[in-house]
Each structure stands twice: as structure tokens, then as C-alpha cells.
Amino acid sequence: MREILNLNLGWSFYRGVSDIAATEGGEAVNLPHTWNATDGQDGGNDYFRGTCLYKKSFKRAELPAAEQYYLEIQGANSSAEVYLNGTSLAKHDGGYSTWRVNLTDGLREDNELAILVDNAPNDRVYPQMADFTFYGGLYRNVNLICVNGTHFDLDYFGGCGLAVTPVVSGANASVTLDSYVTALGEDDRVVYTVTDKDGNVVAEAEGETAVVTIENAILWHGRKNPYLYTAKADIVRYGEVIDSVSARFGCRYFEIDPERGFILNGEEYPLRGVSRHQDRLGIGNALLPCHHEEDIDLIYEVGATTIRLAHYQHDQYFYDLCDERGFVVWAEIPYISKHLPNGRENTVTQMKELIVQNYNHPSIFVWGLSNEITMNGEGDPDLIDNHRMLNDLVHEMDKTRLTTMACVSMCSMDAEYVQIPDVVSYNHYFGWYGGDTSMNGPWFDKFHEKFPNKPIGVSEYGCEALNWHTSNPTQGDYTEEYQAYYHEELIKQLFTRPYIWATHVWNMFDFGADARSEGGENGQNHKGLVTMDRKYKKDSFYAYKAWLSDEPFVHLSGKRYIDRVEDVTRVTVYSNQPEVELFANGVSLGKKTAEDHFFYFDVKNEGETKLVAKAGELTDEGVIRKVDTMNEDYVLKEKGAILNWFDVEAPEGRFSLNDKISDIMDSFFGKMWFIRTMMKIKDKMPKSKDGKASAMGFELGEGIMQMMGGFTVLRLTTMMGMMDVSFTKEELLKMNKQLNRIRKPRKK
Description:
The protein is of the alpha+beta class.
């Protein structure tokens, strides 16, 4: 009978070592483990990417008795090679999926297991370019699976050897059970038992493939009723069970309609939710079950109905939690940002692993083909062909789900590749990376009008916020107040368009992006609704909770923004209750109603004022204080910045580094300055193979140029640091002096 031995404890780790015979300089570690938990989050884009060695010794006598022994590695980023007693047994490319190695023939009485893990750059394994840290390590469980010679397959793309396919018909569900068995003998039988949530047997069958019927099936219906059945498969020989596997599944049906959006079990079921990266502050991607549980609880609290699990396969435990809590999941492979001509085989392997390992999860409804893959243009024939091949592969492997992908904002809606998947979504940041918030809804209206039969969704939207504050929030200021304003506007635009099949906020949590150097805390992307340590829910978290959650609550915004200079200040309250009353030092400022769940009050700012927001029996409170000058602790200071915005000379009526590029381009002399400056910047950039200027692999094309319009010059130069382009203080001051000579056009 199968036994699983966890091997997480007692490893020796050798940083930067590729010699499996190494014995000096090892560090005792337990798994899960990553070597980039610190340097992958501190900025500078200098985290260690290379080969490291993990070693562990064990005696065969300590192992359970079995005929076959399989090493199971649930996550080794991004490539790995397994050695047993000095002999290489297997290699694997792809850092986010489960894979296994048969150790049986190489076992001795005393054994040494060595695993080389490598997250160094290459041209064949995804991802290679993306806005997140590629943490190296054995960062998920490592197990030894001990089985009979006849067992459920352990060699096929990391799957469990059992596939469950339920099809709902009327009140019943027809369930196809397919098992995949290694060395099945004439005297062996495969026996299935299907049980309900309470353990009651609802169906039984025999055979490698069998079809059973669940009478009056209870449907898996998202958060409303995430009902799960369990299918158990046994290999029986002469009345004895010699191997057994099981899988939970749900009975449900769905469609995605270009007018009505997502429809679950015949009911319109709006998909409004978030994306999730798996890493944490000081931990990287080496998560424990408690971390996954906290994440799912926070996403559940905000009221989301869907999660985009970006940009790779997540831990099986998290998919299990999604099944249990009723989230509709978008699962995808890390085919992201830059198409690799040598990476086709890797996209196929990672897609097969994703589908085979996750086929039974009822929470998954769409398979994601790629993300922002047209950064360098959408016309590459090899890129288009690779997507068509992947799309066909997915439909061949899984006839019950749909395909999708996330398109980069500047990708033309007329692009050939946009039409390849069944449904499509776009990553738009109007209001953060160029443009303004009002552009979001109309863009989707235009797509919907042009392609009325193509379901369109929003795969990413968001803006960054740290502990900076202002009463006059503006795009690019990284304040909590601008993030709240941005999401208020996006909620009103996106959630009121029922044809949008799904919306996914980027991101639920701040996450590691070591190349980032903006917002005053380098090494992170701060678009999360919750901080990377999960300790603070930003105000925008509650804006979504007000729209999505049924749990009664009231939230007073701006608790971290106490010192304010204005005589009358705006106070925002979020609640899913119909009426909110605000009290200032015990005096009621009146009751307000708000159909959009956003309640605004103007409050006299005198001395220190205790604010209490009340909705029925619910209350929340905070304090504001009148000050004469702005509290400098609220003002953005870029960490390691050569110049901050407040250090820039900006004469009235003249341009400066603090002006948006789009405004500078509206002036003839400003446009000439910008063109000359961009030519100099292009000279600084590394070159692509054909000699074009590129940055982090992005060619400086029309789409990138359009996005630049919403940036100030200073912000653009700061972001250029992520693209291997840097400026000295003298260069920036010279640029500012040039801009100071150019008059701003008179306002009409």
C-alpha cells in the first residue's frame, strides 16, 4: 500500500555551488526554502540568480517497505537536476509544478540525494522577463512516494493518476472516472467509490474507465455552495488494496456570454476579484500552509468571487482552498512578457503539467495561455503560431474548460492573436501608467462594440500605494488616498458593465519585484490592496469590500493620515450598509446615503478631532489633527533617489522634471526637447539583436511611448532604473534646467 514520506527536514544547502561532491560551507536548512527571501525584495535588481546545491543523506533501512520509490518535488525554481549517489537521474525545467523521479534502481544501503537548483537567466525556460522576483530554491514540499510495482501512474506530468470529469444533465450528474495505472496485472481490478460531503457512498464502479451517475447531484456553486464530492480509486489484487488515490471534485456547468458575462449553473454570477502572487515579505515563495490559509481568508473577506492565480502554477494546497471556499479560478503558465524562440517546448511542458495536475479542481474554469506576451509587438508569426498550438493543446486535453489570456494594454484590439483564445482579457492601467481613470470603461465599450461576440474582461488594473498621504491626490504620487480614488473610479466603471466577463485587481497583495525602485520602498510592487506582510489592509481594500461582501461593516478611511493642514478636510467612509452617520468629537455631521457605497463628509479641521463613523450598530473611528505645515512623514521620498520631486526647481509657468511628458509634448519646444532627450536615452539603452534600443527586453516602440505620456519626467527616469538605464544627479539637474527655459502653453 502507498506510503508518503515527507523529506522536508535535514538538508544541507550550498549557495552558488554546482559540484555535488561539495562538503564544505553547507548550511543546515529545512524545506520549504528559497535563497532569495531577502535579496529578492530589497531592490537593485541584484538578487542572486545561479545554481545552488541541496543535499540529504538517508538509509534504505529507514524507508517503508515498497517495490518502487519516487522522489516528488512540488516546486524547484526554475530548473533542477536530481542525483542519487552521484548519478544524475533526471532534469526538469519549470519552477512552479510538481515532478517526480524514480529512485528505485539507484538506492543503496546508505544514500546521498543531491539536487542542483538553478534560477539563472536562459533563453528556453519561462519566465525570463517579468515584473516579479524569480525566487530560487526548493520552495515547496519534497516527498518520497513508496508504492507497489503496480500503482497509479506517477510519471505522467506530475498527475495523481486519476481524472474525474462530471457532466451535469438535469438533476443528475454523469461522472467519468479515468485511472492511469502502471503495470496493471490480469488479476488486478480498479475499483471506484464516490462519496458525498458527509462520506456517504453515492456511486461505485470498476474498470480503468467507468461512468457513474450521481442522482440529484448537489452543484458546486461558487461561494454560495462550494459542494465537493470525493472519488476514490483502489487497485485491488485478490481482495487486497495495493494502491489508492483520491480526488475531490464538484459538479457544475457554466458559460461565458459576451453580453451577460459569467453564468454558473444557469445563473448570472459576476466574477469580480483579484490576482494573487504567492510570495511574502522576508519569506519569498517558501510558504507554509498557514500562509496560504491567511491569504484565502483575506481574499474571502474582501468579497471576491474570482482569483487569477498569476503568473504560474500555484501550490496544490491553495487550489484545494479555492475549491473549498468557492472561488472561480483563472490558472495560467508563466508564458510572460517576452516570447522566447527557444521556449516553445517549455510552454508545452508547463501547460501539460498545469492541466494534468489541476484537472480535478472544480474551482478552475479557464486556462491562461500567456500574459503580456506582445511587449515587443503582436505580429511575430512564431508567437502567433505558438499560441494557436497551445490553444489547440488545451482543448485536446480538457474539453470542459475555456482558454483565455491577458493582453498588454498597448496591444491592438485588432491583433490576430487576440482572437485565438475562447475569451480574452486586457491589462489596463489608465490613470496610473498614462491616461486617466475615465478612459477605462469607454475602452471596453469600444472593444465590445467592435467584437460583440468575443467575451472581454479585465485581467489587471491597479495603482501603487504606500504609507504616503495627501488631501490632493494625483496620479503617480503613491499615496493611499490616490489608490483609494483610483479604485473607487474603476469599481464604478467596471462593475456596472455586466458584459465584462471577469475583473481582476492587480494585486491582492504587494509582492517582490527586485528590479523596482519607486514609491520609496525599493524591491516591491505596491499595487496590493494589502501589504506584503499581510498586516495592513489599505483603504482600497474596503472600497471593494463595500461592493462585494455581504458581511456588514463600516470603515473610516485615512486612519494613517492624521496631521492635515486644510481648514476643512474631506473624510471618506466605506460601507455596504445603506446609511452612514459621521460624528466629530461626539457631534453628528449628519447621515448620508450612497448607492455606490462611498460616503463623503466635509469636516472642520480644528485642533484634534475624534471621528466616529456609524452604520446601524457598526462603528469605526479615527483621529485627525490640524497642523500648520505638511507632516514630512507623509511626503514621498524615493529610497536611494538621486532627486526627489520636492528637490526639483519648478518656476511658475515653466516646465520641470515634475511635469507630465504628455503636457511637455503639447508644447512645440517641449516636444523638440523630448525628442532630443529620447535620442540620448536610446543611446544609453542596451541593444536588441537587430540593433534596436531595448530595455529589459522591451523595444522602445509606439506602445511604450504612449504609456510614457502619463509619467512625469522624473518618474520616467526613476523607472528607467528597472531597464538598466541610469542618470546622474548632474544629468537630471541639466535636464531640469533645459525644461525651466521652456514656457508652458497658456491655458485656453
